[in-house]
Design a protein that fits this description.
Elements: H1 3-21, E1 24-31, E2 38-40, E3 46-53, E4 60-68, H2 71-76, E5 82-83, E6 87-88, E7 95-96, E8 107-116, E9 128-132, E10 144-147, E11 160-167, E12 171-181, E13 183-188, E14 191-192, E15 209-215, E16 223-232, H3 234-237, E17 254-263, E18 268-272, E19 278-280, E20 285-289, E21 293-297, E22 315-318, E23 325-327, E24 333-339, E25 343-346, E26 352-369, E27 375-381, E28 383-384, E29 390-391, E30 401-405, E31 410-413, E32 420-428, E33 438-445, E34 451-455, H4 458-474, E35 475-476, E36 478-479, H5 492-505, H6 509-522, H7 550-562, H8 565-585, H9 618-640, H10 643-664, H11 676-684, H12 693-706, H13 718-727, H14 731-739, H15 747-751, H16 786-795, E37 797-799, E38 806-809, E39 819-826, E40 829-838, E41 841-848, E42 853-858, E43 867-868, E44 871-872, E45 879-881, E46 889-893, E47 896-903
Parallel strand pairs: 2-9, 15-23, 21-30, 38-42
Antiparallel strand pairs: 1-3, 3-7, 4-5, 4-6, 4-8, 8-9, 10-22, 11-16, 11-19, 12-15, 12-17, 13-14, 13-16, 17-18, 20-21, 24-33, 25-26, 26-31, 26-32, 26-33, 27-30, 27-32, 28-29, 34-39, 35-36, 37-38, 39-40, 40-41, 41-47, 42-46, 43-44, 43-47, 45-46
Helix pairs in contact: 5-7, 5-16, 6-7, 6-8, 7-8, 7-9, 8-9, 9-10, 9-11, 11-12, 11-13, 13-14, 13-16
The structure holds alpha-L-rhamnopyranose.
Length: about 900
């Protein structure tokens, strides 16, 4: 045999052995939803992993996890910090650390191995790590420092803080623990310590301020080192909200900085923010504000070192308490997609405008070489008006203007402490500008994309695109209503209606964990929940139905998506406080008081002669949310094993529903508000006795038809309308709404060229004119809540048990669709439902992740011959055919990849 062939044979054998050995493996290890996180909370450590197996129907049988302070100790199986031992369980997500208390500022290495139900054993997984942050406030040697010069809250240049220090011996390791009052950008020896933006993010600062932990080992050198931090106003003291008010949290920006260096010889050196720092307002950022933009004079962008700072002023050291510090929970905001100009436009007004083709949130980067002192100004807008001119009236007082003063050299410019919502920019510049040197960059919280939805319909795909971009633009550290005008606030109602859709599209776990922490922190003593989180000011509408209910809806939905009981325990008192508040103000369990937003932005017409405005009684709405929130507590109490509360709130729920019936429903089942939203909420939250439900659903359909298959719901009815229609057998009407192209509908904005979801159904009217400038955002995700129905119903991808431990694939083909596909990266792995109809044949491709089980429902299949991979399903051992009904057939199966086909019934 020729040598080559022998080697080939040998290699083949080797590959075969390797493949065999990998029958079962563990991957994607995470701690608290994060891959190898540093600076996390030592008191709250949860492990998850995914399992890979070639075999169908694979379930974890046991796991064994080990953890140590050094990698080597793991393989030696010696001096482990914690060994779980072999645990007999299917649980592979949210495994709580159960060893003795973990240390502060310590790295731990861990790995896991498992066995499965086929008697396979995995190898030990790759070693992963996590590192704890500063766990006791006594470990902070740093003090808050502020500039010596006092601004007293006035806007002005961005201050820079500086200190140099000497490192005498070789460095082993260095960590920087840092946060700010304001938003900071920090450098060590001229290099940025991280690409994270807008740090420390926005939280309810006085109660909760995140600090960040960075591994800065590679940025330090022996000898002299320079630490530089500039701090912009940000949310802390910049303009916030529409009333031109600043300094919500304080009047001066501040820095908290603790650099801990471990030398090769084990000695430690700590550089902390203290009286030895210097400060100056002479830096290049002459102004920076989130709404208004930034002015950057690059002529002042000079090297910063001990010589150039000789004349800088000192700092004031504050004795502020550090009790509000928390570890970084949310994913950082980072630069994401980039866009090159799509079109250059000379507008009728003679302005130079660039179209980036996508409404996005971030800024424009510029490569340029101009004359020193030349001014380049960029204004940002979401739309052009009907004449084709640059339109900014809907930004209200937000200037969205970045100004750069050039230094005459080759330059790369971008702002630091601001962000804009835009698709178009207007450029003002005296010199020649090569527009191809402009790049728009989107910034948003770094959430892993988890969901994919696509279909045979181009317009629906554009709708999905718009939903995703609405999410990207408004998930910039806080879930905001809009990202462009002088608002950009964490409106609770908006977040609540969009949560489920958001959780399909991206992994929003840590993002919402942080925000829910703020919700809890900002909730009033009496239980009311502010309309925006983090709170800006007290409002009469704090406690508005459908807004404040975010307090129970999001934790429950979060639990359902991620199967994480931790979120329910963390939020449980807050959930109860909210419902107890409603109870306390309700009279005889009727919540008929308070100021409410109602079904915000529902359909109305200017000259409403026919009474077509889709008004829903605000207290009727409130009563349905009273029930919804009570129901969420009952479910949470069941999960947490709190029997007393289950009993207590079940009794309450009954009374709440009774009160609803007495007050808002006629004996024949008509609701006092004849609106889509009234019927949708009553049905969605099970407010009516079973006997009245079918006719209520029929009335809803009648109502929709009276609007010629148009949706008239506002923020509160919209998320549920198609779900309710599907549930009561009206998929056809749901599809008619989905495919409706004229106003009001989801596709109307798509037809009008939208690239994001609009705040209003008619942000741009058919004649090209705009809705009221006082509230007309073109990037508002609320109506994008239809995405949830598209994943769940159109493609049919559902959780049947919390966290997708059980999955239900139940596609509902309809409308113009001949194909729909949804994929979701669950905590267990990829789940997929992909159906198409070809010549009357229904073809369904499904992926079910390892360690989960699923039910597959085949639409219009009663009695049909269904095959999986060309075999009749009745003959297959790896699935179980269930009893079908008059329309559908269904099977139960385990993990694996499946291909089903059958001829659909007419
Ligand atoms: C608007 C916001 C938001 C809505 C509130 C009630 O100003 O944009 O979308 O929730 O009002």
């Amino acid at each position: 045999m020729p040598v080559k062939k022998i080697i080939a044979l040998f290699l083949m054998q080797f590959v075969a052995v390797a493949a065999f050995a990998q029958k079962l493996s563990v991957s994607d290890l995470t701690v608290n939803y994060k891959v190898n996180p540093i600076g996390i909370d030592a008191h709250d450590i949860h492990f998850s992993w995914k399992i890979n197996s070639q075999l169908k129907q694979t379930m974890q049988k046991t796991y064994e996890l080990r953890l140590a302070t050094q990698k080597e100790l793991l393989s030696k199986n010696q001096n482990l910090t914690w060994g779980s031992g072999k645990v007999d369980t299917e649980q592979s997500v949210h495994i709580a650390y159960a060893g003795s208390p973990l240390k502060s500022k310590q790295r731990y290495y861990w790995q896991v191995r498992i066995t499965d139900n086929h008697k396979n054993s995995s190898a030990w997984s790759e070693v992963q790590y996590f590192e704890t942050g500063i766990m006791n406030s006594s470990e902070w040697t740093a003090k808050w420092i502020e500039t010596e010069e006092i601004t007293d809250g006035a806007s002005g240049p961005v201050p820079t803080f500086f200190r140099s220090f000497n490192i005498g011996s070789p460095i082993k390791d260095a960590r920087l623990y840092i946060t700010a009052h304001g938003i900071y950008e920090a450098k060590l020896n001229g290099k940025k310590i991280s690409e994270n933006l807008l740090t420390p993010g926005w939280t309810s600062y006085t109660k909760r301020l995140q600090y960040q932990t960075y591994d800065v080992t590679s940025l330090l050198t022996t000898g002299e080192n320079a630490a530089v931090v500039s701090i912009g106003d940000g949310w802390y003291r910049g303009f916030l909200q529409w009333n031109k008010k600043r300094n919500w949290y304080g009047k001066e920006v501040g820095l908290l900085y603790q650099l801990e260096i471990t030398m090769a010889d084990g000695k430690k050196q700590v550089i902390s923010s203290d009286g030895s720092w210097k400060s100056s307002f002479e830096g290049p950022i002459r102004a920076a504000d989130i709404y208004n933009g930034e002015t950057f004079d690059s002529r002042l962008d000079l090297p910063i070192n001990s010589k150039t700072t000789a004349k800088w002023k000192g700092v004031r050291v504050l004795e502020t308490s550090l009790d509000n510090l928390i570890v970084q929970e949310a994913p950082p905001v980072i630069r994401k997609e980039q866009f090159k100009p799509l079109k250059f436009i000379r507008t009728p007004k003679g302005e130079t405008v660039v179209d980036f083709g996508q409404n996005l949130v971030g800024w424009v980067q510029i490569k340029i070489k101009g004359k020193s002192g030349e001014i380049l100004k960029i204004n940002h807008a979401e739309v052009l008006d009907k004449e084709g001119n640059f339109y900014t009236s809907n930004l209200r007082s937000a200037l969205q203007e970045n100004t750069f003063i050039l230094n005459g050299k080759d330059q790369f410019l971008e702002p630091h402490f601001t962000f804009q919502g835009f698709r178009y920019i207007k450029v003002t510049y005296p010199g020649e500008l090569d527009e191809s040197n402009l790049t728009a960059v989107a910034i948003y919280s770094d959430m892993a994309p988890t969901g994919f939805f696509a279909s045979s319909d181009k317009q629906i795909n554009q709708l999905q695109h718009n939903i995703q971009w609405g999410q990207k633009g408004n998930f910039v550290d806080v879930p905001t209503d809009c990202p462009q005008r002088d608002e950009r606030l964490g409106w609770t109602g908006d977040a609540q209606v969009f949560f489920n859709t958001a959780a399909y599209n991206m992994n929003v776990s840590s993002f919402f964990k942080k925000w829910l922490g703020d919700l809890k922190a900002d909730q009033y003593e009496d239980g009311r929940v502010p309309a925006v989180i983090p709170i800006t000011q007290r409002r009469g509408t704090d406690g508005s139905a459908g807004w404040a209910d975010a307090a129970t809806i999001i934790p429950w939905d979060f639990y359902w998506v991620y199967g994480d009981k931790g979120i329910l325990s963390a939020q449980y008192t807050s959930m109860k406080k909210w419902v107890d508040y409603i109870s306390s103000v309700a009279s005889n369990n009727l919540w008929n008081n308070g100021t409410h937003y109602g079904d915000w932005l529902f359909y109305t017409m200017a000259d409403d002669r026919d009474g077509k405005a889709a008004i829903t009684d605000k207290h009727l709405i409130a009563q349905t949310f009273f029930a919804a929130s009570t129901q969420n507590i009952i479910k949470a109490a069941e999960v947490l094993g709190n029997k007393e509360d289950v009993i207590k709130y079940t009794a309450l729920l009954e009374k709440v529903k009774d009160a609803f019936l007495k007050e808002y429903v006629t004996p024949s089942g008509r609701l006092v508000s004849n609106s889509q939203t009234a019927y949708v909420l009553a049905l969605n939250f099970d407010m009516l006795p079973e006997s009245l439900r079918p006719q209520a659903a029929a009335r809803l359909v009648e109502n929709i038809k009276s609007y010629k298959n148009h949706i008239t719901t506002g923020f509160l009815g919209t998320p549920y309308i198609c779900h309710v229609l599907s549930r009561f057998g009206y998929d056809d009407i749901a599809y008619a709404l989905l495919f409706q192209e004229t106003y009001p509908s989801w596709l109307y904005p798509v037809k009008m060229g939208a690239t994001t979801i609009w705040e209003r159904w008619d942000g741009i009217k058919t004649d090209g004119s705009f809705q009221n400038t006082s509230m007309n955002s073109f990037n508002h995700y609320a109506y994008g809540a239809i995405g949830d129905w598209m994943y769940k119903r159109v493609a049919g991808l559902n959780a049947a048990e919390a966290g997708y431990k059980k999955i239900r694939i139940e596609p509902s083909p309809g409308g113009k669709f001949t194909n729909a596909i949804a994929k979701l990266e669950t905590l267990y792995g990829t789940a997929k439902s992909n159906w198409k109809i070809e010549n009357g044949k229904f073809i369904l491709d499904v992926i079910i992740p390892v360690n989960t089980q699923a039910t597959i429902v085949f639409p219009n299949a009663a009695g049909a011959k269904i095959t999986e991979n060309n075999n009749a399903i009745e003959e297959l051992k790896y699935l179980k055919k269930l009893k079908g009904d008059s329309k559908n057939e269904s099977v139960e199966l385990g993990s694996g990849t499946y291909h089903f086909e059958y001829l659909m019934n007419k």
